[in-house]
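Changelog excerpt

This revision adds worked examples to the README so contributors can see how folded entries look when concatenated. The first example is reproduced verbatim below.
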Amino acid sequence: MRVLVTGGSGFLGGHLTRTLRSLPGMGVEVICHAHQTVPEPAAGVTVLRADLLDQGETDLLVRRASPDAVAHLAGRNRGSLGQLLEANVVATGHLLESLRSLAPGARVVVAGSSAEYGASSQDPITESAPLLPAGNYGVAKAAQDLLARAAFRVHGQPVAVARPFNLIGPGQSPDFVCGSIVSQVAAIEKGVCDRLQLDETGSRRDFVDSRDVAQAISLLLLHPEFAGRCAGKAFNIGSGRSHSVAEVMMHLERITGRSYQVDLPVTPPPVAVPTQRSDNRLIMETTGWCPSFSLTQSLTDMLAVARRP
């Protein structure tokens, strides 16, 4: 099976590419899409560059990849509303259109986000919860999600949506809360600083390791009954537990054997989404997936990467 991973050079894309390549006896050939050329692609992985905002380049990508399956991870999580809508909605529309005309049988898993739910009244949050995004990123991902599932309803495309909750894992950028905390802990160990700088410590999130998410997406993508059991549906991918930022710090204190002082702003910024926790039963029942990395293991692995020279 030829699998195209858009955004394959990104954080989650890298983990998914490695997961797909490691599957024994599946005969998976991985084609990694990147907006910019990857300098040193992994052995056995074909890298194709394309700007998904250009329909012609997207058509050429699909022709060259000739995929049997597509994991669509490309997009952006920072920027203006216009930039977010372009990268997450317009680009997805181009890809789905190209696949309809050039690879109509290709199954597709589009990566959504728990940001689509916003401050949901459900706990845990099921896939049937209303999409009530609290920010521009969530709005863009909700629109992308609706577009993807409309492709199934209107055109019969075999498309499913994966909704990961808050990603963590080795190699995560400091732009995200756990990546920032781990990066600062490593900096304290190196004597670069002596205190953590955080906006707040009370919000709660369902942190799920990117390696577990990659495994879940691969199980969806390669499901032997994809058309009947996956297409047209959305799937939460989360740990099913929530942890506060303060609890993340406590885990790191246990891992490192030391305590950390925290500087907080005099007037903390408002928290649009105080808490989120996934109901992950559908992905577990459909694929047999379950999360394997504990929060402690994820943070330990993240710190090991952050400590490297």
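The second example, added in the same revision:
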Amino acid sequence: MVKARTHGDSQPRRRGLPWRIARALLLALVGALVLSAASVLGLRWINPAASAFMLEAWVTARWHGERNYHTHYQWVDLEAISPRAAIAVIAAEDQQFPFHAGFDFKSIRAAVRAHQHGARLRGASTITQQVAKNLFLWPGRSFVRKALEAMFTVMIEACWPKERILEVYLNIAEFGRGIYGVQAGARIFFHKDASRLNSAESALLAVVLPNPRLLRVDAPSHYVLAQRDWTLRQMAALGGPAYLNAIEPP
């Protein structure tokens, strides 16, 4: 005689496919976060061989059959870069760089208020955010990319000193099509090393950073020249290269 199974004898139900998918996704997310953190930490000491933006531009050029496209990129340490170039990018891009923790909320609020009064919505990305985007991500304005940019920005600020952030930015920023880093920009546009850049040359390089495909160092428009002159005034107002003392470790 077969004994009827009671409620207490029932075996636990097997977890279904949705649970296994959720578990796999959670593990993948944790793995991606660990890998991202490890990459950021390692790049505190290891100079990047390339950036995500460099690779994306190279792949796009090859996809369109541009066999003559070349990436111009040569790493140089911060000590081998003119202090004028360093202060120029801070003056043009992120004057609160020594003091914020990756996000300049004051500039963000100012940009939003200006937009509410009819001005064109302008970006308020910090140098750290630019490093996060250029080094690890892809061009675009999706919410996913902005969220990842914020994540990498927090990691970079937590793991790197300000000097390292500035050093990486100066080396991976795009100054023209296929031209990455201040050393390549100095060589191609001014036929000199980055260590010998003067204030005007540094300011001219810095002002093309928002859109180096449209704003040209080698054929500057009236707008670019006006922005160069504005940046020179900002460099002087900040105190010149002495302002860099604010980012040096105590």
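Reviewer comment on example two: The CA atoms of residues 98 and 125 lie 14 Å apart. The mean pLDDT is 87.
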